[in-house]
Amino acid sequence: MAEISKEQVKHVANLARLAVTEEEVEKFSEQLGSIITFAEQLNELDTDNVEPTTHVLDLKNVMRKDESKQWLTQEEALKNAPDKKDGQFRVPSILE
Amino acid sequence: MSLFDHSISELQQKLHNKEITVSDLVDTSYKRISEVDDKVKAFLTLNEEAARAQAKALEESGQAGEALFGLPAGIKDNIVTKGLRTTCGSQFLSNFNDPLYDATVIQKLNAAKSITVGKLNMDEFAMGSSNENSSYFTTRNPWNTEHVPGGSSGGSGAAVASGQVLFALGSDTGGSIRQPAAFCGVVGLKPTYGRVSRFGLVAFASSLDQIGPVTRTVEDNARVLEIISGHDKMDSTSANIDVPKYTESLTGDVKGLKIAVPKEYLGEGVTEEVRNAVLEALKKYEALGAEWEEVSLPHSKYAVATYYLLSSSEASANLARFDGVRYGVRSPEAKNMIEMFKLSRSQGFGEEVKRRIMLGTFALSSGYYDAYYKKAQKVRTLIKQDFDNVFEKYDIILGPTTPTPAFKVGEKIADPLTMYANDILTIPVNLAGVPGISIPCGFSSEGLPIGLQLIGKHFDEGTVYRAAHAFEQATDHHKKKPTLGGAN
Predict the structure, then answer these.
(1) Considering the domain boundaries, does residue A10 fall inside one?
(2) In which domain, by residue range, is B101 found?
(3) Where are the catalytic residues (chain B) (predicted)?
């Protein structure tokens, strides 16, 4: 049984930018542990000489010309913003 | 009898002959919605005023050969619609009332002159197999409203099955079109990865997601896919491969078709009734002149674990965009920037979404990447090779879509792993990137639909449709409708 400690849960939550309550830490620790245990069945397979698949189609990088074009106006871009000021997105202070 | 009992081509003929008007079709939708959607709960947002205005405009303009002229459609709520609220079933986007553009599939539907009736409920950000993860309400199965409609495109399956729209669009990352189609007794296709542009589909797992049609018949399904397919310069993963006239492959002829039946797809967990329905279907195919043999997809048992590692990892990256800055709901309590991210996301996301972001972030984190994420990518290669091997000798892979018919609301929601196991027969198809369809093939003793899954080679939707159509035309399963009352 894979153990995902409460400390690990808190670390991962911070990486994922999620605020978690003590109760959630407890629950995620248990649930992620059992999901990871389930996932460890993949270790039954020898994959040393297997290439990873990132993409099922044989696609190459797709390039386009770097040309500017009209997409959204400033007004449109701000239309759904929770907070805005003077034509820009407004956010709480970044520095303490 | 509803107008939606007619096929797209029959309705086009009726419009052409002036037996019906576009407004009649739109009326059919909204009347049915008012009759049954308080029970089914398929719609999150209705587009009634605009849809009726569009109907009038189309009537005045007249039909000019557009393929879906005047036909009412429902759209899964993770497909962006300009000016029409798009929530992805999430509270985070509850205020996303004014999206700035139409997804490519919506632009294509608009060009074909279909009418968007409204936006359909789904598991939050398409993560779920029952619709219970919608943060608004749970859509119900029209065949028995105590049961789930499947997920994540549960609203799409239920709306088509209950006659509220003629067709719907869904999205399928691990079975999210096919599983609800099976549970609701309709036709749902997940196209080949790359067949349909995902521009404007809110991303869940980018190496797996595809948009596809949900319809009552195979022919209608093929007709909608013809419209929405094709290369799009706005989606660099869309394939630059010609779109065939899929309707032309509906010949009814499956003589000599080589069908592979993976023994893993009829094994443990598959109920007796589902197994029997699939075996009956094979007899039908034999009678129609097709041949079948048992084969093995030996890595099938690893598909669920592989899928949850990969899809959650991709989701954890894709959902990083929900930061509360540019759109969506921002927590009012945040005192600084980091707190704004954390509180907005924690308050806006539901439990399953958080769980998958946590799993994905863990699998991608330093020290675990090789053991989990990369390992899963390697097993994905083995799963894909299983399909390649079988498709060297066979045209179609056949099995059930789901191990059981629709389960009850509340039955599986408590344990994530129990819920995940439900997708065991659909997930491998996404991992391999091949097309798969679910069509009705019978009913359980409780009267719930059973889905037959047909899987084809890359970009061979034509053969998938041909096989599905031949079976459909030789059976009556698709003619049964749920009894919700009213003029269904």
Answers:
(1) yes
(2) 3-257
(3) 76, 152, 176
Minimal Cβ distance to B375: which of A47, A59, A96: A47
Q: Identify the CA nearest to B353 among candidates B278, B416, B444, B275.
A: B416
Distance between CA atoms of B314 and B161, rounded to whole angstroms? 32
CB-CB under 8 Å, B324 with A52: no
* Residue B49 falls inside a structural domain: yes
A41/B359 touch (CB, cutoff 8 Å), yes or no: no
CB–CB of B325 and A43 under 8 A? no
CATH number, residue B201: 3.90.1300.10
Buried b (16+ CB within 10 A) or exposed e, B408-444: ebeebbeebeebbebbbbbbbbbbbbbbbbbbbbbbb
Residues B296, B310: Cα–Cα separation, whole Å = 24
- Asked whether residue A68 is domain-assigned, the answer is no
Is the residue at A71 inside a domain?
no
Amino acid B158 reads A
Residue B195 lies in a domain: yes
At B236-290, the pLDDT tens digits run 999 999 999 999 999 999 999 999 999 999 988 899 999 999 999 999 999 999 9
What's the predicted TM-score (pTM) here?
0.97
Q: In what order do the strands lie in the sheet with B396-400?
A: B43-46, B115-120, B72-76, B167-172, B210-215, B187-190, B436-443, B449-455, B396-400, B258-262, B291-295
Whether B151 is covered by a domain: the verdict is yes
Residue B170 Cα, gap to closest chain A Cα (Å): 21
Joined tokens for residue B446 = 């409780």
Q: Which residue has the tokens 């792993």?
A: B417
Helices first, then strands: H and E counts in chain B: 15, 11
Domain for residue A91, yes or no?
Answer: no
A62: which chain B residues are within 8 Å (Cβ-Cβ)?
A: 236
Q: Which residues of chain A neighbour B83 with C-beta distances below 8 Å?
A: none
Number of domains in chain A: 1
- The predicted pLDDT at position B253 comes to 97
Residue A28 lies in domain: 6-42
Is B378 an active-site residue? no
Helix axes B104-111, B218-228, angle to 10 degrees: 110
Query: Per-residue pLDDT averaged across B298-321, rounded?
Result: 97
pLDDT, tens only, A30-84:
999 999 999 999 999 999 999 999 888 877 788 888 999 888 999 999 999 999 9
* Structural domain count, chain B: 1
DSSP string, A2-19: ----HHHHHHHHHHTT--
- The label of the residue with tokens 């596809």 reads B212
Enter the tokens of residue B415: 């344990």
B234, B101 Cβ separation under 8 angstroms: no
Mean pLDDT of B101-111: 98
